[in-house]
Write a structure and sequence with these properties.
Strand 13, helix 12 and strand 14 form a beta-alpha-beta unit. This protein is an alpha+beta fold. It is built from 20 helices and 27 strands. Pfam families: Creatinase_N, Creatinase_N_2, Peptidase_M24, Peptidase_M24_C.
C-alpha cells in the first residue's frame, strides 16, 4: 500500500518539543519565534524533514502557523482544519486561533510585549508576509529579527529526518508537449518584457515544468527540490543536490543549462550584481530578496514567469489529462460498484475503503503515486474537510449514513482529483436535500459561460447560491488549479471567496468542489476537474465566451438526488454528464460492473 494509516504526531508534541525550542530561543537571545507551515520552497505538502509546524505542535494540516513566546504559544489554522486541530494539538498548551481572521499579525499585536525580540527564519517567510508581521510586532513595541540558525531546527537536532534525495528524471516530450528549450526561450521573453535580465525560480513545480523533469522530494507530488536562475536569453543555471542527478540528466538538459549544486547558489546570486532580477514575492522567501540586494542586484518584484504558462496546459497536456481521467474514472467506477454491492451489504470501514480504491488504481498498471492521501470520511469524520483515516480515528460506515471519498492519482499523462459522496443504506431526507443543493452549485459552475478576464473569485458565488438560499455554506475554496503530472494543488488560478486577480485562461485546469458539512454527523462534497475552453461565440451574443469542459468521469450517486429540486436545465445537464460517463467509461468495464454503470447513469 502507498498510503499508511499510522499517525506521525500526537498531542504530546507541543509539550515535548516547545520547551526545547524555547531553550534554543533563549540561547540566541530571542523572546519568541515564528513557525510557518511553509518550507524553503513555499511548499504546501512537505518532505518530513521540513514539516516543522507538525513537529512543534502536532498539527499536520497543509496550511497553518504557530507563534512560540517565552510564556505562551498559539497555533493558527483556517476553516478546513478547525476540527482536526482540536484533535491533534493540546489546547492547554496552545491557544487555537483563526489563520484568516487577523491571523498571526493580530496575535502579535496583542501577545507580544514591548522590548521583546521575536525571531524568524528568512528562508521560510515571503517578504510580503514579513512586512505585515513587522508592522504588527512594532505596534506592540516588539522587534522581528532574522536568524542565521533556525532554533527549531537546532532543537530538532539529530532526530530530524534527512533531506530527500529522490532522483531527478526526464519528463518525455510525449507528455510535456513542448521542448524545454522552447519553454525557456518563451519564458525568457516574458522576463525581458518585465524589464528584467534574469529571474530566480524557487517553486519546485516551475522548475519541473520549465526543464521537463520530475522528481520525488515532495510527498504525493513528482517534484524535485531545487532552484534555478533563468536568463532572458533562455540560458539557465539549475541548482540540484548532486545525489539527485541521474546519469541521463545532463544530456537531457542540454548545453544551455548549467547544472550546479545548492552550495553554489549564494555565489550565483552574487554574480547577478548590477542586473535587474525578477523574483516572485509570493513564491520566494525574503532570503532571496536580501541576498540579491546585498549583492547589488536590482530586484524586480514580479510573478513567477512560469506560473501562467505552466497553468495554461497545451494540447498534448490536455489530451493526456483526458486519457488519465478516463483511466482513473474506470478505476473509480469499479470502486463505486464495489461500494454499491458488497459495501451496501457489509458497510466498510474507512481504511478498507481506502485500500480497495488504491487496489483498483494500481490495477491500471499506470499509477505512479496517489496525488494525495485519500480522504475517506464515514459518519461524523465526513464533516472534517481534510480528514485522513488513521488506525485511531477509523470508523465503519453504517446503514443510513454517508461516506465521502476524496482521492486522486498521479499518472505520467495527468493528475486526477475527484470526490464522490455515497449513501450507505437509505439516506435521510435532509441528507438528500443538502446533497442536491451541493449538486445544484456544482452544476452551475460547470455550465457557466464567461468573458475573457473573468477570475475565479468572480465565479465562486455560483456554487454557493443554492446553499446560501437555505442558510448554509462551506469553509473552503470551491476550486484549485491542478498540474500536469505535477502538484494536485497548483496556482495561480483558483475559485474561492478570497480575492484573486488571475483571469481564467484556456487550458487552465480547476476543480469544481462545493460541499456541505454538518459537524458531528456527515459531510458532502462533489468534485470534478474541468478545464477552461477556448472562447466561442454565443448565438445572439456580442462577445466570445469561455466555458468549462469536464475531465472527471464517474457516476454521481443518484439515490441522493431530489429530482424535484432540479430545474429542467439542471436535470438535462445531469443526465448529459452521466450519458458521457456511460459512453466513455462503460467500454472499459465488464460483467456486473458494466451493467451497474449503465443502470446508475440512466436518465434521472
Amino acid at each position: 500500500m502507498r498510503q499508511t494509516f499510522d499517525e506521525t504526531t500526537d498531542r504530546s508534541f507541543g509539550p515535548k518539543h516547545v520547551p526545547l525550542i524555547r531553550q534554543a530561543m533563549e540561547a540566541q537571545g530571542l523572546d519568541g519565534f515564528l513557525v510557518p507551515h511553509e518550507d524553503e520552497h513555499q511548499n504546501e505538502y512537505l518532505p518530513a524533514a521540513n514539516d516543522r509546524l507538525a513537529w512543534a505542535t502536532g498539527f499536520t494540516g497543509s496550511a497553518g502557523a504557530a507563534v512560540i513566546l517565552k510564556d505562551k504559544a498559539a497555533v493558527f489554522v483556517d476553516g478546513r482544519y478547525t476540527i482536526q486541530v482540536r484533535d491533534q494539538v493540546d489546547p492547554a498548551f496552545f491557544e487555537i486561533r483563526d489563520l484568516v481572521d487577523g491571523g498571526v499579525p493580530a496575535y502579535l499585536e496583542q501577545a507580544a510585549a514591548s522590548g521583546q525580540k521575536i525571531g524568524y527564519d528568512p528562508r521560510l517567510h515571503s517578504p510580503d508576509a514579513l512586512h505585515h508581521l513587522r508592522a504588527a510586532a512594532a505596534k506592540a513595541g516588539a522587534e522581528l529579527l532574522p536568524v542565521a540558525e533556525n532554533p527549531l531546527d537546532r532543537a530538532w537536532g539529530q532526530a530530524r529526518p534527512p533531506q530527500p534525495t529522490a532522483p531527478v528524471v526526464p519528463h518525455p516530450l510525449e507528455y510535456a508537449g513542448e521542448d524545454s528549450a522552447d519553454k525557456r526561450a518563451r519564458v525568457g521573453e516574458l522576463i525581458a518584457k518585465r524589464g528584467a535580465d534574469a529571474a530566480v525560480l524557487t517553486a519546485p513545480a516551475s522548475i519541473a515544468w520549465l526543464f521537463n523533469v520530475r522528481g520525488g522530494d515532495v510527498i504525493r507530488s513528482p517534484l524535485p527540490l531545487g532552484q534555478a536562475i533563468l536568463n532572458k536569453d533562455g540560458t539557465a543555471r539549475l541548482f540540484l543536490d548532486p545525489q539527485k542527478v541521474t546519469p541521463e540528466l545532463p544530456a537531457w538538459l542540454g548545453n544551455q543549462v548549467r547544472l550546479e549544486t545548492p552550495g553554489d547558489l549564494p555565489q550565483a546570486l552574487a554574480d547577478l550584481k548590477g542586473l535587474k532580477v525578477a523574483v516572485d514575492p509570493a513564491q520566494s522567501s525574503a532570503w532571496y530578496f536580501e541576498a540579491l540586494q546585498s549583492a547589488g542586484a536590482e530586484v524586480v518584484r514580479a510573478e513567477d514567469p512560469c506560473a501562467i504558462p505552466r497553468a495554461c496546459k497545451n494540447k498534448v497536456e490536455i489530451e493526456g489529462s483526458r486519457k488519465a481521467h478516463v483511466r482513473d474514472g474506470a478505476a473509480l467506477s469499479r470502486f463505486l460498484h464495489w461500494l454499491a454491492t458488497e459495501g451496501q451489504e457489509s458497510p466498510p470501514d474507512e481504511i478498507t475503503a481506502v485500500q480497495k480504491l488504491e487496489q483498483f488504481r494500481e490495477a491500471t498498471g499506470a499509477l505512479k503515486d496517489l496525488s494525495f492521501d485519500t480522504i475517506a470520511g464515514a459518519l461524523s469524520n465526513g464533516a472534517i474537510c481534510h480528514y485522513r483515516p488513521t488506525a485511531r480515528l477509523n470508523k465503519r460506515a453504517e446503514k443510513g449514513s454517508l461516506l465521502l471519498v476524496d482521492s486522486g492519482g498521479q499518472y505520467l499523462d495527468g493528475t486526477t482529483d475527484v470526490t464522490r459522496t455515497v449513501a450507505i443504506g437509505e439516506p435521510t431526507r435532509e441528507m438528500c436535500e443538502r446533497f442536491t443543493l451541493v449538486l445544484k452549485g456544482h452544476l452551475a459552475l460547470a455550465r457557466v459561460r464567461f468573458p475573457a478576464g473573468t477570475t475565479g473569485s468572480q465565479l465562486d458565488a455560483l456554487a454557493r447560491v443554492p446553499l446560501w438560499e437555505a442558510g448554509l455554506d462551506y469553509d473552503h475554496g470551491t476550486g484549485h488549479g491542478v498540474g500536469s503530472y505535477l502538484g494536485v494543488h497548483e496556482g495561480p488560478q483558483r475559485i474561492s471567496k478570497a480575492p484573486n486577480t488571475v483571469a481564467l485562461r484556456p487550458g487552465m485546469i480547476v476543480s469544481n468542489e462545493p460541499g456541505y458539512y454538518k459537524e458531528g454527523e456527515y459531510g458532502i462534497r462533489i468534485e470534478n476537474l474541468q478545464f477552461v475552453t477556448e472562447a466561442e461565440p454565443v448565438a445572439g451574443g456580442e462577445r466570445p465566451m469561455h466555458g468549462f469542459e469536464a475531465l472527471t468521469l464517474a457516476p454521481i450517486d443518484r439515490r441522493l438526488v431530489v429530482k424535484e429540486m432540479l430545474t429542467p436545465e439542471e436535470l438535462a445537464q445531469f443526465d448529459a454528464y452521466h450519458a458521457r460517463v456511460a459512453r466513455e467509461i462503460g467500454p472499459l468495464l465488464d460483467g456486473e460492473a458494466k451493467a451497474w454503470l449503465a443502470e446508475v447513469t440512466a436518465p434521472l
